[in-house]
Amino acid sequence: MTELKNDRFLRALLKQPVDVTPVWMMRQAGRYLPEYRATRAKAGDFMSLCKNPELACEVTIQPLDRYPQLDAAILFSDILTIPDAMGQGLYFESGEGPRFRKVVNTLADIEALPVPDADKELGYVMEAVRTIRRELNGRVPLIGFSGSPWTLATYMVEGGSSRDFRKSKAMLYDNPQAMHALLDKLARAVTAYLNGQIRAGAQAVQIFDSWGGALSAAAFQEFSLRYMRQIVDGLIREHEGRRVPVILFTKGGGLWLEAMAESGAEALGLDWTCDIGSARARVGAKVALQGNMDPSVLYAKPAAIRAEVARILAAYGEGSGHVFNLGHGITPEVDPVHAGAFFEAVHELSAAYHR
User: Of the residues 137, 169, 298, 347, which has the fewest C-beta atoms closer than 10 A?
Assistant: First the structure.
């Protein structure tokens, strides 16, 4: 086991003292970087890149080589690998995002879905994790991830992305038995998938509940949070002699932080619509917080980026328990220089809050 040279990300998630606020960025390996675009072109297409462990490792590490301030690497993959492994036939339509050749419509469709073997059908992800850990050589921790059951279900029922989730919500209200059957199967698949990543070397995991915020308060509790709790309860929590922290990120979930803080996760991700100081007051010492700068701030000049970093740090206040991040993923049009200014500002300005 290689000793971690920089563990402030893991320490902050456990609310242990750190010297500066750790920072990483959702989608930090992605289209805003010219080196990523070159590697993707070499792979041929997005899924070929995801399924090539060596190239997935290459793009995972590219932002760390460019930005030495980064305190974590995140596995390069996609949230829809599980539905793809269930036989739904994932493909990407130019300009339209992810699509599935098969759509889930009925309880019979759901009952026919297999729970994939994480080490077989998703073995390319586990090999990518092992490869990245080896190449990182203790530089920073590696984050594994999955989509939440509700988020994965929306893609499987809609057949791809959706603005209003009309088919998913119709199933939820018309046939809750079917939706619960789908979510339970997905929760078991996600648990096995994340445990596979942890065994392969992921040192923290994040559950992306990208579309939980589209639900009503009651539906969120029953159809999203319930299954994320089920996953957290089933995860490996100690590996390689360390705690494996879990981060829950529900976009649009700021109304439900207190309930999410009772999930058993170590940290909650916040989008930019939620004030981080108010969130800290609401959850107290129960969980760490991750976030939450508006990604669009990165279109502004470095001085404005620095000012917004300063504002968020002041809103959180003194002490550990904060991992700085964006409130969602970085967008492809951002100037990489601006991302660098963001990371530099976090480390430089946060030291005063950790004396």
Answer: 137
